Amino acid sequence: MSELMGTTGLILNEPLLWKKGKKGRCAFSLPRRDVESTPIDEELRGDGPDFPDLSEIDVVRHYTRLSQWNFCVDTGMYPLGSCTMKYNPKINEKYAALKGFAGAHPMLPPGLTQGALRLMFEMERFLAEITGMDDVTLQPAAGAQGELAGMLLIHAYQQSKDMGRSKIIIPDTAHGTNPASAALCGYRPVPVKSNQKGFLSSEAVHEVMDEDTAGIMITNPNTLGLFEENIKAIAEIVHSKGGQVYCDGANMNAIMGMVHMGKTGIDVLHLNLHKTFSAPHGGGGPGSGPVCVRRHLKPFLPVPRIIEENGNFAFSEDFPDSIGKLHAFYGNFGVIIKAYSYIRAMGPKALKKASQLAVLNANYIRKQLTGVFHLPYERPCMHECVFSDKFQRAGKVTTLDMAKRLMDFGFHPPTIYFPLIVDGAIMIEPTETESKEEIDLFIEACKTVADEAEKDPDLIRNAPQKCKVKRMDETAAARRPCLVG
Ligand SMILES: *Cc1c(COP(=O)(O)O)cnc(C)c1O
Fold it and tell me: Radius of gyration over alpha carbons of the chain, in Å?
């Protein structure tokens, strides 16, 4: 086994701050007082909080060490499928932190914010170009909110045509947020099964599509990491019954510059800037889920919209058919700046190359691990590949056990038990930013884990051994979270 594996992260013990420091120690120094002191009323003074006395270095080291307990993409490979945890170039942070951007108050008048407005205006054009759609809103704060916005757009469009509809078709390969968003908008999700190849057949859609169905929500590439090959024929069937086609494009990292989504027949599509366009995410940080539409849905986009007149940019609320506002102000501007900076730095050629490399890396892993783990759908994948624990389950070792063991080798575990249509799923998305050497280390770790599953299953069942936090009670952790030390 490579000597680097599992030893590249720092593992440090760290007591509570209350166990550190010394009475009278202080983290700042002020010049001696040169005025008379005035006693404070004893009653007001009280005892003061029970805080430890610490120096600056005590505090800096404490929090720096604690930060090492967290895994992040800056410390190691993060192959979390469906999440596109790629490395985010720091230059994007630098631009987002520029004073004129970071300090701009959202209520400043347009005369003082032309730069920010222009950036958002151009960003909308870039995303329209990348997706091949006609217009874009940057307002939604995340993918799921983009989905809800898309559903509201479809609803508003059909209302304007006096088409009241109650259902929406959702394949079993769609992201879990899809049925939730549809239901939030008042639609009843109608499930439809993918075929043995892992994508949707037009026959299956034909069977369920009717005139009470508002349309379909289709994740493409889907959650098996496969491209929905019949999307055009499916869109035709849905359109022929007056329905609309929603595409969950959170997995755009697989197809940038490769597929003109506007020509696949879809009507609405959302993107996750905090996946494909290099904005860091996770831990509930801010996201951005722009929604791209074909021309007929444009009048319904959320307000305010950014308009341009003779080189001047302004906000306009003058869209009477709009679904209204979705977010305070105009969306998560900081995330939009990072994504804008990324797109400008990359340009069309490098964006396409990023997708090609993401797909190549995923297929390399798929090939290398075929036979090590069970591969339920044996066909070339897009940006991620999905295995299962079928081979290991015979020895009573599960996906969860293996995911925990991978942490001992210094890797963040892949996505597990998702998508639901694969029993014991292990969903690996390496992204384009990992080098071949790093991917090879990951493959070696997976092979070692599979080997251990056969020879020493208890070792795996008791993993992780090296991490700060050992095996958790996953159910209790979710149901009764303990948020204090
Ligand atoms: C991540 C993801 C979403 C949800 O995005 P959030 O920003 O987490 O709301 C939706 N669909 C797909 C396919 C995704 O991968």
Answer: 26
